[in-house]
Design goal:
The complex is a heterodimer of chains A (174) and B (302). Chain A has 174 residues and is mainly α. In chain A, 70% of the residues lie in helices and 5% in strands. Chain A has one domain. Chain A has a two-stranded antiparallel sheet. Chain B is mainly alpha-helical and 302 residues long. Among the domains of chain B are: 81 residues, no CATH class; 99 residues, no CATH class. In chain B, 61% of the residues lie in helices and 5% in strands. Chain B is rod-shaped, with a radius of gyration of 46 Å. The chains are: A mainly alpha (174), B mainly alpha (302).
Chain lengths: 174, 302
């Protein structure tokens, strides 16, 4: 089903906000100046963080990939209380659906954008000469980010949100 | 603040109020005049950056250039602010609200987690201690009474527990409750037949016992217990009627049971009770049998 991106952004706005929050959070942690920030707007991109040029690779990695970690963890954390009533006992409570919407919205906005990938690639190219394992690992990550961004068309972001929100706990609560 | 002269009108102006276009320094007024003659769009007027004026707060640093941040002159205060820019209050409040909401939801849904834990414990206990297992499953149901799955599981575990306690009437009532709610792998139908057999035995309805045992055999023909149950039922009929045909039926069924699972220790005990019934034509309960023969029974020893 083809749904305009801005509608998806509106429906999953908590995820957009958390994504930008995570970018800003890691900028602050690493002392990177945040020049401008938009947590959510109706447009493309739905949110953004403008920060100063980053000089070291580790910081660039954290700022680029940080939202993936924060959004994914929050998705798991939020979906968790909904999982048992919904999936183990099959009870359809409104509270579970609210949690699920929040969790999956945040989870499906976990993936870094192609712009994040470009920034990461730029820094990884410079850092790879020092044989930093993280820099080497960044190349497949960048490729994966580009592939995933293409697969957004096929709702891979939604599948990811559902996957970590509902499938992951099912490994524990059999 | 640095001042520069407009190339066109020669006025001295703050640098930040001028634009450098094609090597010429222009004020806004001259730029607008030129655009009308040269056709340059007004939007192309790009203000020059004064390295002595903070790009964010406009602080004038006299004639000394300020350090730059993202290629913009920036005072120390603004640099510190941007490097540790505070999250907007609404973000902080929303985040706190989200955490509180999820924590409250988790606390609210804790009963589901506890019920799940009880049900898992019950599942692990069922083979060792059916009573404990039924107790844990009842506890799970108490926490989530609206769960149809738990209702069925609790009834099932109660049924198994009652069967272990030789309380077939209660077992039958419990098992009937979950008959259509659990998958066939739970063997509820077989347990129901087992309970029915107990009920008919207790009611001295030996014809009913035979019918139930036959149903058990047809349902589980490869299960030695089914044949032993049929042997038990025929032994009751023999004891009650003294008809040798029933004795022969009982022995035949017992032979089939031996052939399938003769080595099972629980079968040995059941076999003794059947043989005792056939030998003495006395129908006693399992409890009575164990009370009388705590070390087992053999025909020649009686």
């Amino acid at each position: 089903m083809i749904i305009p991106g801005f509608l998806v952004s509106i429906a999953t706005f908590p995820g957009v906000i958390v994504h930008e929050f995570a970018h800003m959070f890691f900028c602050k942690r690493r002392g990177i100046a945040v020049l401008d920030i938009c947590f959510f707007r109706i447009g493309n991109p739905a949110g953004y963080v403008v920060h100063e040029e980053i000089s070291d690779f580790n910081t660039a990695f954290l700022v680029s990939v940080g939202p993936f970690l924060i959004n994914s963890l929050l998705c798991i954390f939020i979906c968790f209380p909904a999982f048992i009533p919904l999936k183990v006992f099959g009870l359809k409570q409104p509270l579970s659906y609210v949690l699920l919407w929040l969790g999956v919205s945040i989870g499906m906005n976990a993936f870094p954008s192609t712009q994040d990938a470009r920034g990461l690639f730029h820094h990884a190219k410079k850092a790879v000469s020092s044989l930093s394992p993280l820099a080497i690992l960044s190349f497949p990550i960048v490729v994966a980010i580009y592939i995933v961004n293409i697969l957004f068309f096929f709702w891979i972001d939604y599948l990811y949100g559902i996957g970590i929100g509902l499938w992951l706990p099912s490994l524990i609560f059999r | 603040m640095l001042k520069v002269k407009c190339t066109e009108c020669g006025r001295a102006l703050p640098m930040k109020d001028t634009s450098k276009t094609d090597g010429r320094i222009l004020c806004v007024g001259c730029y607008e005049k030129l655009t009308s003659t040269q056709g340059i769009a007004i939007s192309e007027f790009i203000y020059q950056v004064d390295p002595t004026v903070c790009a964010r707060c406009g602080l004038d640093n006299g004639s000394s250039p300020l350090p730059t941040l993202a290629s913009q002159p920036m005072c120390q205060q603004c640099t510190d602010y941007l490097r540790n820019r505070p999250f907007p209050s609404w973000i902080k409040l929303s985040f706190a609200g989200l955490i509180i909401f999820v924590a409250l939801a988790a606390a609210w849904n804790m009963r589901f987690f506890l019920a799940w834990r009880d049900s898992k414990a019950a599942g692990a206990l069922i083979r060792q201690d059916a009573g404990q297992a039924a107790e844990r499953m009842r506890s799970a149901l108490k926490r989530v009474p609206e769960s149809r799955d738990l209702q069925a599981f609790s009834a099932f575990f109660d049924g198994v527990h009652y069967l272990h306690q030789n309380r077939p009437e209660e077992a039958l009532t419990s098992l009937e409750k979950c008959r259509h709610s659990l998958p066939s792998t739970f063997g509820v139908d077989t347990l129901i037949l087992d309970a029915k057999a107990g009920v008919t035995f207790n009611a001295k309805d030996y014809d009913g016992f035979v019918v139930t045992a036959k149903q058990m055999v047809s349902k589980n023909p490869d299960f030695h217990y089914s044949h032993a149950m049929l042997a038990s039922a025929y032994a009751c009929k023999y004891a009650a009627t003294n008809d040798m045909a029933f004795c022969e039926h009982a022995m035949a069924a017992l032979d089939r049971a031996r052939a399938i699972g003769g080595s099972d220790p629980s079968f040995k005990e059941y076999e003794q009770r059947i043989l005792h019934r056939l030998s003495t034509q006395e129908i006693i309960t399992a409890e009575e049998f164990h009370r009388r023969f705590p070390n087992g029974w053999q025909k020649e020893k009686e």
